[in-house]
Fold this sequence. Notes:
The chain is α/β, with parallel strands linked by helices. The chain is built from 13 helices and twelve strands. It has helices at residues 5-11, 52-64, 76-84, 101-111, 126-132, 155-164, 179-182, 220-230, 236-246, 249-268, 287-293, 308-318, 367-378; strands at 69-73, 92-96, 117-121, 137-143, 170-174, 192-196, 210-214, 273-277, 300-305, 323-324, 334-336, 357-361. The strands form two sheets. A seven-stranded mixed β-sheet has the order 1-7-6-5-4-2-3, with helices on both faces. Helix 3 packs parallel to helix 4 and helix 12 (308-318) crosses helix 13. The longest helix has 20 residues, at 249-268. It is globular, with a radius of gyration of 21 Å. 49% of the residues are buried. Pyridoxal-5'-phosphate binds at residues 75-77, 100, 102-103, 143, 147, 174, 176-177, 196, 198, 208, 210. Pyridoxal-5'-phosphate is lined by residues 75-77, 100, 102-103, 143, 147, 174, 176-177, 196, 198, 208, 210.
Amino acid sequence: MTTNIAxxxxxxxxxxxxxxxxVTVPIYQTATFRHPGLGQxxxxxxxxxxxxxxQSLEEGMARLDNGCxxxxxxxxxxxxxxxxLLFRQGDHIVVTKDLYGGTYRLFDRVLRPYGxxxxxxxxxxxxxxxxxxxxxxxxxxxxxxxxxxLRVSDISALxxxxxxxxxxxxxxVDNTFATPYLQRPLELGADLVVHSTTxxxxxxxxxxxxxxxxxxxxxxxxxxxxxxxxxxxxxPMDCFLILRGIKTLPIxxxxxxxxxxxxxxxxxxxxxxxxxxxxxxxxxxxxxxxxRQMFSGGGMLSFTVKGGASEAQxxxxxxxxxxLAESLGGVESLIEVPAxxxxxxxxxxxxxxxxxxxxxxxxxxxxxxxxADLAQALG
Length: 379
Ligand SMILES: Cc1ncc(COP(=O)(O)O)c(C=O)c1O
C-alpha cells in the first residue's frame, strides 16, 4: 500500500517482530549470532556485517527517501567517509562551496592528501558547475540547503548537467538540513543521498549517526562491501534511538519550520540585524527555487549582526533559551557562531565564514518565548 511519509515515519519498524508482535523494533544488543550449523546462517552473522535493529533503520531510511537501499553509519562523517572510499587517486569531485566545516576538513585535509582532487564551486550557479566539470570528475557533492548560509542548489538541473557530462559523475546530496520530509533528492535525479541522522532524524540530541540511501540497486553491493570492510557502523541502541526519533519527524519538522519562518521575519525587521539567511524568507536569493524544491523552509537559519564579531559573540552568549552549542536538529533551540565553532576548520580558506554570522537551530519551544529570548539578547 502506498502511504504518505507522515504515515511511513510512524509505522517504521512496526511489522518487524513477527514472533512477539512488538510495536517497536527490539534492540538486538548482540555482537554475534549463533549459526544453526556449519555453513548455515540465520541471515545474521556478526553485527558489523548486519544487525536486525540496524537493518530496520536502513530499510526505513530507504523507504523515506524513496530509494532502494539504505545504509546506516556511526556518524554523518562516517557515512561521508565510507562513501568517499568509492573513489580512487586522481578522481576529481565538485563540491558545494558553502559547506559543513567537518565535510570540508575531511575533503581538504584528509582525502586530498590521499590523492582525491576537490573543486569547491558555487553550486547555486549552474554555469559554474558546468565549467567546473572535468573528464575525471566522478562526483558532484551538493549540500542544499547549505551549512551555514542556507544556500539552495537546483538538484534536478544539476543532476541533468552531471548525467549528460561525459564522465557521468555521481550526484550526491547531503540532505541533513532538509530531511526526507522536506526534500526528496532521489526523486529529483540525485544518485545517492546522505544524512547526519544525529540531527533532525534522531531529533533529540541524544545520539549520533549517519545514513546513505541509494536510488538504484547498482550501488548496493559496493556500498554494502565498504560498510562492512570499513566498519563505521552504529550500535543497535543508537539505531533504536534514531528509529524512535523518526516516528515524530513530520510533526517536529512542521513546528521547527513554523518557528524558524517567524523568527526569520522578526530578525529581518530588527534594526540590529544586517541580513537573514532562510530559504523561504522573501530576501533569500533562491527563494523561488527553495519553494519549488522544498516542502517548507526547515528549522535552520543564520543572520549577521551590526557591530561585527564581538557583537555576534555577545548575542550568542546572551540568550537563555537558545543554548550556545554545536549541532542542530534537536527539539531544543541552539545558537552558535560558525566561524568560531562548527566552521572553525574553514578559517583562512576560500570557504571561511564571516565572523559576524550567527546560526540558529530553531527548536519546537513556544514561539513567543523564543522571540522574547532573541529580543532581549539583541538588546
Ligand atoms: C550538513 C552536515 N552534514 C554532515 C554533518 C556531519 O554529521 P555528524 O556530526 O553526525 O558526523 C553535519 C554535522 O553538523 C552537517 O551539518
